[in-house]
Amino acid sequence: MNGDTAERISQEGQCSEDGFHGLLARASAFAGAVLSSIQALAGTTACKGVQIARLKDWAKENDCWIEDPKSLGVFSDRGSENEVYMCYDGIHVYKLNDFRYSDDNLTPFFERIPAHNQYFPDCAYDFIGFSQNRDGKVCAVLRQQLVVNAREATPEEIKAELERIGFHAEDNGEYFTNGIHDIFDAVPNNVLVGDDGNFYFIDTIIFKSDADGLDTYKKYSPNYSKGR
What is the distance between the alpha carbons of residues 204 and 183, in angstroms, rounded to a whole number? Predict the structure, then answer.
């Protein structure tokens, strides 16, 4: 991404002003066109690697490639899919998402972000662009408000809050569903309670209910417990 940090942050704000109808929608449409082309030529939807390679070129052409993630903030942590950077402004975090939970193509990722923002607007994601993580993998860059003075929610609190917004537990609490979307990895370190008493689902995994999300989660999650 060209220009100094101030210019970059300004561009990020412009990209995210209209939410899913901005940069995320354009990247999703481009990835979808790659999928449609490969499906027409080869009869397969397994094109994740090709989509990622093409999106990297697309990001550079559209000035939303971040060459050095350290320009965003200070590296903080690494989860199962996200590399986390604490923003220099002290009020945001950046997450470099490596598309782990998109199995053979990126459709689940581009469906997941607006779904998360619909259910959990208090900790919504802004889609900023693309970069490479410390392992050299191309990632989507997401920005999220930092939740300060928070504690981890208990499993009982998480279940009650999800039930309040219309989800119920399945598979002995392995995931929650409302029949439209399934929510995975809603565990204490991914759900916080702020000093305002509100719940912040900062890092869950969402699939459409008809998308074999449980099988994908079992396949890719290091946290999956087969003993449940």
Answer: 7
